[in-house]
Amino acid sequence: MNKHKVAVLGASGYAGGELLRYLVAHPYLELAWATADQNAGKLVGEVFGHLSHLSDVELATTDPATVPDVDVAFLALPHGAAASRGRTLADRGIRVVDLSADWRLHDAAAYSQWYDFEHPHPDELASWVYGLPELHRDEISGSSRVASPGCYPTAAVLALAPLLQERLVAPAGIVVDAVSGVSGAGRKVDADYLFSELDASFKAYGVGKHRHTPEIEQELSLAAGTDVVVTFTPHLAPMARGLLATCYAQALGSVGDAYDALATAYKGEPFVRVLPLGAQPATKHASGTNQALIAVGGDERTGHLVITCAIDNLGKGAAGQMIQNANLMLGLEETAGLTGGGVYP
Amino acid sequence: MNKHKVAVLGASGYAGGELLRYLVAHPYLELAWATADQNAGKLVGEVFGHLSHLSDVELATTDPATVPDVDVAFLALPHGAAASRGRTLADRGIRVVDLSADWRLHDAAAYSQWYDFEHPHPDELASWVYGLPELHRDEISGSSRVASPGCYPTAAVLALAPLLQERLVAPAGIVVDAVSGVSGAGRKVDADYLFSELDASFKAYGVGKHRHTPEIEQELSLAAGTDVVVTFTPHLAPMARGLLATCYAQALGSVGDAYDALATAYKGEPFVRVLPLGAQPATKHASGTNQALIAVGGDERTGHLVITCAIDNLGKGAAGQMIQNANLMLGLEETAGLTGGGVYP
Amino acid sequence: MNKHKVAVLGASGYAGGELLRYLVAHPYLELAWATADQNAGKLVGEVFGHLSHLSDVELATTDPATVPDVDVAFLALPHGAAASRGRTLADRGIRVVDLSADWRLHDAAAYSQWYDFEHPHPDELASWVYGLPELHRDEISGSSRVASPGCYPTAAVLALAPLLQERLVAPAGIVVDAVSGVSGAGRKVDADYLFSELDASFKAYGVGKHRHTPEIEQELSLAAGTDVVVTFTPHLAPMARGLLATCYAQALGSVGDAYDALATAYKGEPFVRVLPLGAQPATKHASGTNQALIAVGGDERTGHLVITCAIDNLGKGAAGQMIQNANLMLGLEETAGLTGGGVYP
Amino acid sequence: MNKHKVAVLGASGYAGGELLRYLVAHPYLELAWATADQNAGKLVGEVFGHLSHLSDVELATTDPATVPDVDVAFLALPHGAAASRGRTLADRGIRVVDLSADWRLHDAAAYSQWYDFEHPHPDELASWVYGLPELHRDEISGSSRVASPGCYPTAAVLALAPLLQERLVAPAGIVVDAVSGVSGAGRKVDADYLFSELDASFKAYGVGKHRHTPEIEQELSLAAGTDVVVTFTPHLAPMARGLLATCYAQALGSVGDAYDALATAYKGEPFVRVLPLGAQPATKHASGTNQALIAVGGDERTGHLVITCAIDNLGKGAAGQMIQNANLMLGLEETAGLTGGGVYP
Lengths: 345, 345, 345, 345
Description:
Four copies of one chain form a homotetramer. By secondary structure, the first copy, chain A, is of the alpha/beta class. Chain A has helices at about 15-25, 45, 85-90, 110-115, 135-140, 150-165, 195-200, 215-225, 255-265, 315-330, and strands at about 5-10, 30-35, 70-75, 95-100, 130, 145, 175-180, 205, 230-235, 245-250, 270-275, 290-300, 305-310. In chain A, about 30% of the residues lie in helices and about 20% in strands. In chain A, α1 (about 15-25) packs across α10 (about 315-330) and α5 (about 135-140) packs parallel to α10 (about 315-330). The interface between A and B is large, with 51 and 51 residues.
């Protein structure tokens, strides 16, 4: 079988590097083009010490016009930098999987409010599909424009959507308290992300204003069939990878009911595993994989359900999910290239 | 000035070791006795590589009868092991600061419910003071029996008590989502606490049933003047020290009101600092100190206040607070021995 | 193509877990049997949170008699526990790849001296091949009894053997200063390996007496054609995986000569990469892979060459190399199942 | 007693921050002036979250002319930035403790060779004392110009000098293999020092050309009474603090002789501890202190002694030693302000 040719735009960041890693091992996809503005002209093997197998791949500048006619373009560009580029590539008939937020939100006003960004093509937002396969598989399969979810929304929505859908938790008063490894901030060179600042330390950030909030709310509102607003607090833990969302919601049923609803919703899903009652996922159990591990518990005295979801922020939270989306869009086996076990310990 | 003589029971655990470290630098306290059952007969310097200055101190077995007539006995023993020992020492007229939970809860029934432990002296629970100086300074000063708080309750109660007292948050629906460094689990030799299991990983534990819950509720109920129940979820982060509580409560006032209430409540407190609006504490900012760093934010759309409190779980969350309590009980300057700055980075 | 059936004895340790991970993704090998004495009766998915794909595999006790007729048996057992078991399996006609030291040393006396262990079958030591493919590929291909190298010897021998062979360094006075991640100590439950003890700390151990010394010397002596003794000091770094050997030897040629010799020796090797002069490998560049990354530098003033070699102690230092050996023994492509890129960051 | 007034130039880096921490707790020194060019105008408490006690100290620009008439000026400036400033302050009659390399080397040519820096005042190099109190206590006490040692030289020289002096190791062929925590690189904002790049990884750097080499050689040559050249390889470990030097030298006596020589040399030294034979120091045992922990072992087969020395790179390797030097220069107790125990775990 001939491999499908793909391009990666923004290949020198962490999500881009993880895409390249997945592509190396993918049976049906083949890297044909890679770009990275700051590292244009360098070889991939120079930019990433762990990708010397790709030392013959030279990084180009990120110009949609020079991208060859590939089957899929993966965009791992900063927010704001993908809106027009993604559109241009899609207009050329190339399937696009975009990791930026630029095409994730259905409501153009949310871009002004949360991103300080006037969306240049608000009337085209509806033509992109939100790429969470467990919720929108059929739309993704039939689409050539997929906006792959953010890391926090992936975990929070997988944890909560089935419970809202089944009316097992109240749509009001939901709290999402989440923790990410530092690679979630990308490869940005900033004093705040120096090793000595973050090692052996833990902190909250973006309280009340993180940009993933409207994305979580959009998908949970769809699941609930009513408007959902959430209080979302992200934190930074001293680890490079991994993400855990701990979600709190008022129970409208028992913990057992919630477990059953989650187990039913994800039965047969290759990348979501609901843990036995009483168990809790560690983020390292998903490290290097496209898996999401979900557990549900609760406190009967307070009536809160507590649902935790662990993913690799660069896997199911970024590059793994992009591959999963591309597999669907190309009609491939959904798990192709994503079956490698996690790296532990 | 003659130094006060103190004993440390349970000196070979992490809280015990931190007590010894504080005592070395304390201007008015002097270690006269140290015990550690598993390491009895060894020198402190053998048990703790960083305490070679104490290589002339031999560890005794933990028998209250053999403790000499010291001015203060610090108990850093497992839960259940301090109830009778603490009582015996107190009956001998020795001031006792106990770090176990054995004398913290006013309601004996809570021990059966949360600790699987029938309290041996339920009618004496009322004679012990809950040793959170910022809330109970006068009682502590006048007492010789102080139950020093747990690490999670210290952070959660400091974050929430003034807001409940001032009716700025609702007493119902409070969520405490907290994260501790691994030393919070003590020096227990268990596969779950091996370096390779925990490094680069993050997880929740004890969902809906952690034993610090009734302690948090007791103190918040006192502050609110009404029964408060909280949903409390502890997590483990890959760091040895540090604790952050992220607390969620329905706002009955603005973020500004909440900031003012906290700033007023802790004005003049030597060990609590309310950060400027917009700032967030990192646990490492409190590392090696007795400080608690508090920040308040919120999400107006959801009506939640988000209050974070960072401490060193072995400092304000354990040994530092025990020293602070002893200072008060002895009529010393409250900050004596606790002024050393934190270790950063 | 029918997959070859394999057994893993000692599947619940870290090397065993990594073997299972590699097997999941291997195109020609299939797990047919797994044992783990302490966890016998449990499912693999219960023992390893990251291997839920293997939740239908039950762990048996480690008895060679009950191992089915597999094509290859991988032994990841403690030293001393593999000598007889490995022999028994090999006598049954099963290919054996043993990760213990029990069959690595050609000189039976070395077992008494370094391992406090009287080898039970000294006259059979010669029938086993030392499984470092880059040095002994042909012997491995033709053998059914392969003793896979230790982690430190793998790195040190790859770094130094070509230089000794080409007489570019003196055989006397060699120093191997090496650093391993904590998983090198296995999953042993011991206070020394607790997270809080090792995080943010670094130390030497086994000075002058580490058991990998005779193994390094055996292979370097073979390469040099003369007796080589080395001063070897292992260290523990606060990371779960990764190993770096920094090797010092008196130069008999220039740094450029040394670079050329290494580049020539490893030309075409799929798992060894010699970095450009001036570059240095980070252990994370090899994390999750079977790669060895080598760099050479020197100090002309002192006449020392400094050769560094980075591997994943669980990859090329353990499970990856075992798979590589099995591939050779079965006549498969040497890289089968080992092409996945590393996990970074 | 009136406190001595001190200035810290370069107060917003990690060594500067550690100086401030030590000064807060110092009984006889008082901060009167602090500078930091990049953060001029900010309060110390804004620059360092852990130093809120210093929120009334505003950072000035680093101009020797505006420094008030203090008793001691501590310079924690980049190499090259201290040569003239230190001289200017000393000419004003202010005692200077300089942490840069600018006044450490006696041989002006070494600056050209190793630092690419033409020393502006080569004939004044002799008027500065190398501030390693264990070797040069009397000179330091009588001087007002002290060049405080680098972190690697402190550990390597303490480990080796007494053995060279007593002719227990050969002066030729010495290898210093050393490992530092990341704070040794300072607070430099560079992609190489991002958390995600360094966490869970280990690597060598500066092979054959690190600038601390001539400093180590200068002091070892003095101790040996003959020219000593060393092969020095620094490494970076995933921890913020801590430094271990593992030193290899040909033994001219037994391990026992070496132990005795070290024990004798450091008998009575408040900040150097020679561990019992067989023990090895962990860097965390010195964390937050001014201690150096030394162990000696060896390999009789190869004739190498292996001497390890653990320090806190920011303590005995930087700020702690600067305070120790200042104490000597002012005629204070040498241990003043430096008795706090280490932070463990």
